[in-house]
Amino acid sequence: MNRSRLIAGAVVVIGSWIVPMSNMAADSAVSAEKVVKEAQEAIEATRQYTVQQKEAFQRKAQEELAAMQEQILELQTKIEKASESTRADLQRSLNELEQKKEGVREKLDELKNATDTKWSEVRERMNSALDEFKRSYRKLLAHLP
Q1: Interacting residues of 28 by C-beta distance below 8 A, sequence separation 6+
Q2: Taking the CB of residue 10, how many other CB atoms lie within 10 A of it?
Q3: Is 0.70 surpassed by the pTM of this model?
Q4: What is the DSSP string of the chain?
Q5: Interatomic CA distance for residues 68 and 8, integer angstroms
Q6: Distance between CA atoms of 123 and 110, rounded to whole angstroms?
Q7: Which residue ranges make up each domain of the chain?
Q8: ∠ CA 126-132-133 to the nearest 5 degrees?
Q9: pLDDT tens digit sequence for 50-76
Q10: Which terminus of the chain has fewer CB atoms gathered within 10 Å of its CB, N or C?
Q11: What span, in angstroms and rounded, lies between the C-alpha atoms of 102 and 105?
């Protein structure tokens, strides 16, 4: 009889531990699912943000490229009015500027085709190409009569 009471008592004690532990396991599984879901949502939000940043930068770069073309056209008009002695030098500088503009266009094409993970690297190269064009443009302006 003592033995059956002892076994019954042990079953009650063990049962009282198992029930809360099984609830903890269920809570843990729900919690893990929640963490995974939240992580996936955060990854998607980050991806969307990156896409938005990439598209905004592309628009800005496209606008700058269009402005470059206008600046070059204005320079061509000014160079045509320059004296013959300076026109050849200015035309060479303008040709270099055109090449730099084409470099910017190539970087823009790279940017459009860049993956989300690589676009920041391409963006840096694009910024460098834009800066180089701007420096050359200012230098050419300084030499205009």
Answers
A1: none
A2: 10
A3: no
A4: -HHHHHHHHHHHHHHHHHHHHHHHHHHHHHHHHHHHHHHHHHHHHHHHHHHHHHHHHHHHHHHHHHHHHHHHHHHHHHHHHS-HHHHHHHHHHHHHHHHHHHHHHHHHHHHHH--TTTHHHHHHHHHHHHHHHHHHHHHHHHH--
A5: 89
A6: 9
A7: 2-143
A8: 90
A9: 888 888 998 998 999 899 899 999 989
A10: N
A11: 5
Residue whose tokens read 């459009």? 112
**Residue 132's pLDDT is what?**
92
Task: For residue 27, give the amino acid letter.
Answer: D
Q: How far is residue 17 CA from its own chain's centroid?
A: 52
Structure tokens given for 11 = 């079953």
User: What is residue 27's predicted lDDT score, i.e. its pLDDT?
Assistant: 59
Q: Which amino acid is at 48?
A: Q
